[in-house]
Amino acid sequence: MAWTTEQRYRRYEDWTAEEVQHIKENIAKSPWRASYHVEPQTGLLNDPNGFSYFDGKWVLFYQNFPFGAAHGLKCWVQLESDDLVHFTETGLRVLPDTALDRHGAYSGSAMQFDDQLFLFYTGNVRDENWVRHPYQIGALLDKAGNLEKIDRILIEQPEEATDHFRDPQIFNYKGQFYAIVGSQNLDRQGYIKLYKAVDNDYTNWEAVGNLDFANDKTAYMMECPNLVFIHDQPVLLYCPQGLSKEVLDYDNIYPNMYKIGQSFDINQAKIVDPSPLQNLDYGFECYATQAFNAPDGRALAVSWLGLPDVAYPSDRFDHQGVFSLVKELTLQEGRLYQYPVAAMQDLRGPAQVLTNQTHTENSYELELDLAADTQSEIVLFADADGKGLRIRFDTQAGQVTVDRKEAGEPFALDFGSSRSCSIDRKAAKANIFIDKSVFEIFINKGEKVFSGRVFPQEDQKGIFIAQGSPTGTYYELDYGRKAH
Ligand code: FRU
Fold first, then answer.
1. Residue 483: per-residue pLDDT
2. pTM
3. Which GO terms describe its molecular function (predicted)?
């Protein structure tokens, strides 16, 4: 069905209990619900928000339109976890219910101050002429789970920015709090604006300047900027919409990219000696990644495995979007690595030697060893004819290719059905996480990553080695299984 603006922005209270029940029944029929990835209870999930540590627990929210697979009136939905693997919805929502966020509680971040968690987000407001007014606003969550919105604008839209001004990320740099906000200037170029909390008061922000990260200025908007520090080195992750493919090639409708700096010069608002721009993920779906430095110093990240302006086969079951696993970001020899947190191993069943299989539950991890100078191909979500998600490793030419053409229902075909990236020409390892309609492939423990969705047919449950002789281990993954 095509959603009208009116349907997308219908007030939450106007949806009847029968309509909500109908949506839930439809979702229950979906063959593609994930078993160990975060998904929306109903409707559409997009960006991760407010990823933080508060009151002895990990807190994470997802952007949600609860009434179907559409980008409509958004809220935040809270999840909690004690291991970064098992997430439970608490029922708490940041609703679009005030004059400052009436048309959507858009993306943002969180940070603990005293006994409260400060949520810093964008209130999306449309006036009577449907002109957008983006307000950077806040709310406070206490330990009992009560949410109180701060009823004034914390950062106004700057004069030099259009109405594309959103997604504040708060961060702590050497004891001082700052925030960066995704912006577009009047020449329709994307940039990132840096603010400082005056006297470390999170309700009082002053502009420092535009973040200098050697912006190539080809993108028209920088969505969801995040700055994290790994052993003092800044890593800037962001989504440069409309980025020229001459700057860096990418296949997805919108890219999620990063740069690594040598150091951060706060006085000049500058990321010193930034690396060239890099693709964060070589797969089909990865966007709006949110990263933060945990109190223990680790840089943790979660991505939306979905993209704006793309229709998914699951839409007809009234759900869209999943989160990636929580990934720890590290720097090794100057390169960014992304790898699921160690607690993911708690889901593993007994180790089994990799062989062809016809009937998995499509809920497993494969650890593959690819010898140097070899070519091999493995098909996952394979049917009896060996059709499925085709992954090809060529350690001779130094390339990995993932092709989803024959993996279930086609979608997003305008952007091609295969993806590849180069790897070093030597033996490689691959850890592949499969979950019903989700795949995450980590090459060499996170040196390169391919993430994406497939919507397999009912008989696509196999593993089929189509070429070469990759060896490896197969682990069933069970969300109910937890180490003691
Ligand atoms: C990115 C994004 C953000 C915005 C949010 C709205 O996917 O467009 O820029 O805050 O989604 O849901």
1. 45
2. 0.97
3. hydrolase activity
Grouping H, G, I as helix, E, B as strand and the rest as coil, residue 347 is helix
215 lines ligand 1 (CB under 6 A): no
For ligand 1, is residue 107 a contact (CB within 6 Å)? Answer: yes
Q: What is the position in ligand 1's atom list of the atom closest to the CA of 122?
A: 10
The class that CATH gives domain 348-476 is mainly beta
Domain ranges of the chain: 5-342, 348-476
Neighbours of 351 (CB within 10 A): 10
CATH of 5-342, one of 1.10.730.10, 1.10.260.40, 1.50.10.100, 2.115.10.20: 2.115.10.20
The b-or-e profile of 107-138 (16+ CB within 10 A means b, else e) is bbbbbeeeebbbbbbbbbbeeeeeebbbbbbb
CB 162 within 8 A of CB 186: yes
Which parts of the chain sit beneath pLDDT 70?
Answer: 481-484
- How many Å lie between the centroid of ligand 1 and the Cα of residue 322? 15
The catalytic site residues sit at: 47
Ligand 1 atom closest to 182 (CA)? 9
β-pair partners for 345: none
Give pLDDT, residue 482. 58
